[in-house]
Design a protein that fits this description.
224 residues; mainly alpha
Amino acid sequence: MLTLATVFALLPDWLDPEKLIRSGGYILLFAIVFAESGLLIGFFLPGDSLLFIAGMASAGAFRTGTDSIHFNIWVVLIGVFVAAVAGDQVGYLFGRKAGPALFRRPDSRFFKQEHLEKAQEFFESHGPRAIVLARFVPIVRTFCPIVAGAGQMEYKTFVRFNVIGGFLWGIGVTTLGYFLGNVAIIRDNIEIALLLVVAVSLIPIAIEVIRSRREKKRAEDHAA
């Protein structure tokens, strides 16, 4: 049976969340969260699973002899939150400075117009709430703050939603990993936990989709 653990084992070391944490510790963890939150080159990084694994490591779920890792949960939570918010801020400022020129930029190895367009559609569909919801959508998470900046979204509004999104995603996913890391059956079957975090991360999107459809139906009924 193919599990997420098996999939991670097939990934190169620089994309395997567990190996990244083992080799880079706090610094690499925070750097990846920062990069994936707002730098164009960070869209391919494993943010969700990395946060979850960091939470489990804080619970002591990866103590395996001399190769054990253990984080301080408070250091992780504070660092992840700051890195996530700071990353989005940089993305917003970059988008604001680059403006329309960004949408004319040719495709390259680390940049695809389709990613930017997908984030733009997401932003237009959900408005300011997209800054929060995008945190739970890979790739869109990276490009959404850039689109917000390019679209001249009011800075105060962006900061407010950025802080909320950074808290729900960074602290929420990490905390989930920490508490599940203290549950024996989860600790011994990490692939189950990883499947769970993927499912949980999709809940805000599902809620927003349902809400948007209801609002659209109400508008159509009202127009009729």
